[in-house]
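From the methods appendix. Each design record in this collection lists the tokenized structure first, followed by the designed amino acid sequence. Records were kept in a plain field format so they could be parsed without special tools. The example shown here is representative of the layout used throughout.

RECORD:
FOLD TOKENS (267 positions):
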């Protein structure tokens, strides 16, 4: 299994903003796109892809199953609905969006249903999102760790999640980082700014390069074409050990996203 190192996110983008962002991202070179049922923009993403002229086989498309669709009789139909909106016969990766421990559907049930979606050819890979260690262990018990392509989790220089990422590395489960810029907060950090100045880079490039050097995939989003293109250049930025050590010291448990009732206890 393989997860692209760099993709474009679409969280909080809908309608023309989502269409333009994805179209611009594809135009400047992105080939991985991340969406979700709850974003309510799968149809917008599908339209942007259809109008881009980029061949489907050249893209890596991720979506996420939303909480009301976790039950075994709902998950596959909901994914088929997502595929219709995305104008494709399959996605490359489907994730369970949140553990949602109080919604009445067990990890075993929704992971087994997700594995069935893969067997049906609706998705080429499956994975999880926002799962702490205990729920990840339950997912592994349900389908086997070799089936879980990634755990997409909030990660930034302010929230480095070292215990969870170490566990995922031990299990051979790839880490995908979202909110890597912490809603833009890290862009104003003086340490990040100093490192950016030394490398003639942007603060966003530094934060993204930090995650990439740690082996994580990243999915930053932007409505601005110039920022999309600039972020992509983080792949060429090489931070040294001193840079990484300085960023390591920025940890402050700075979590931005933890919706009540959806998140399990964090590690």
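DESIGN:
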């Amino acid at each position: 299994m393989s997860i692209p190192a760099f993709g474009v996110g679409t969280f909080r983008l809908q309608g023309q903003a989502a269409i333009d962002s994805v179209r611009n991202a594809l135009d400047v070179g992105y080939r991985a796109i991340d969406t979700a049922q709850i974003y309510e923009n799968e149809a917008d993403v599908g339209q942007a892809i259809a109008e881009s002229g980029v061949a489907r086989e050249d893209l890596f498309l991720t979506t996420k199953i939303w909480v009301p669709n976790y039950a075994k009789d709902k998950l596959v139909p909901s994914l088929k609905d997502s595929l219709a909106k995305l104008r494709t016969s399959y996605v490359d990766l489907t994730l369970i969006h949140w553990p949602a421990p109080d919604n009445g559907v067990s990890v075993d049930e929704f992971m087994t249903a997700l594995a069935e979606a893969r067997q049906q050819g609706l998705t080429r890979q499956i994975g999880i999102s926002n799962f702490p260690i205990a729920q990840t262990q339950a997912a592994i018990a349900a389908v086997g760790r070799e089936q879980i392509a990634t755990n997409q989790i909030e990660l930034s220089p302010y929230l480095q999640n070292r215990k969870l990422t170490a566990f995922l590395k031990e299990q051979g489960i790839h880490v995908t980082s979202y909110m890597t810029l912490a809603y833009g907060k890290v862009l104003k950090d003086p340490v990040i700014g100093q490192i950016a100045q030394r490398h003639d880079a942007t603060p966003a490039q530094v934060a993204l390069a930090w995650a990439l050097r740690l082996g994580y995939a990243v999915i930053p989003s932007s409505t601005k074409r110039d920022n999309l293109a600039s972020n992509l250049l983080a792949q060429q930025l090489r931070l040294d050990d001193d840079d990484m050590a300085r960023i390591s010291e920025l940890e402050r448990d700075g979590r931005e996203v933890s919706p009540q009732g959806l998140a399990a206890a964090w590690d």
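APPENDIX NOTE: The chain has one domain: 8-248.
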